[in-house]
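Hi support team,

I submitted a single chain yesterday and got back a structure, but I'm not sure I'm reading the token output correctly. Could someone confirm the output below corresponds to the sequence I sent? I've pasted both exactly as they appear in my results page.

Thanks,
R.
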Amino acid sequence: MGKQGFKELQVWQRAKKLAVNVYKLTTGGSMAPQYALAEQMRRSSISAPSNIAEGDERDTDKDSVRFFYISKGSLAELITQLEIAHKVGLLTAEQITPRSAECLEIGRMLGALIKSRSLANPTCRP
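Hi R., thanks for writing in. Yes, this is the structure output for that exact sequence:
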């Protein structure tokens, strides 16, 4: 469990900002008629900071790490959905590239957090 709370985690702050950004991107415009894809992108983006928050509030490092891995999976889902939206002509490369890059960076940050929590508790390792 985090000493200062999940809101103090830079990885959570960045994931939350990404979720807000994706939500705005998928509201209106070319994504409006594509409700299913837009909604799935919103869910994936919202899942990332939500699982970071839930993981950080868990009582054990092992439990926390499990939620951090789920968050990483949500980021991978979002990258996939961004690429699909681009390939079917709903979003431009200029719209998806910075968001995909942010997903990768947040994923790297989560990897470091997972490593840190796993080193603190050897039973966390997959």
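A quick pointer for reading it: The radius of gyration is 15 Å. Let us know if anything else looks off.

Best,
Support desk
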